[in-house]
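no rush on this but wanted to send it before i forget. what follows is a protein written twice so to speak, once as letters and once as structure tokens for the fold. mainly i need to know what kind of three dimensional shape the backbone takes. thanks a lot i owe you, the record is right below.
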Amino acid sequence: MRDERSRSGGFTLLELMVGIAVLAVTLGIAIPSYADMMRRNRVTTHTNQLVAAFAVARSEAVKRGAPIAVCSSDATQSECAESEDWSNGWIACTDEGAVAGLCESGETIVQRWSAPAEDQVRIVTTAVEFVRYRADGRTQQPGGTSAVFIVRPTRCHVGDARSVTVTATGRAASTPTACP
């Protein structure tokens, strides 16, 4: 009788090379798609935070029966920056002081939103330092115009940017937009 020995259950060199080639092709396709998804998710997150800030401010203005402002914050997030640069984040505060849209001493900060990482997301405005809500939930913008914000990744591709528009009625809405 012949002694039959069982073969070891390993891979041949050819099978291993084919497996590595398939893995390399799969990763070559998946990694760029994953990076695109992450970039879009960051933009969506910051867009939602901005829309939420306006919803909170509008709700608080109606609830308190007093004006509430959302403004770009300074680096410490303790007061308004009086700037169109929203890169340090933004704050919502009561706005009953002498200067509209400016969190002055004695006014309460309702909520703070941290800044997006500069290397990931930028918020571009069209000359907007603050959005002020009256007690009836409507906005009180200089010139009665809508406030427009563009949230975009640092390296913007087609379909990546979002526009947040706050209308005179106080409603904040987000829509896809072209990269500025």
Observations:
- The mean pLDDT is 84.
- The radius of gyration is 26 Å.
- DSSP finds one helix and eight strands in the chain.
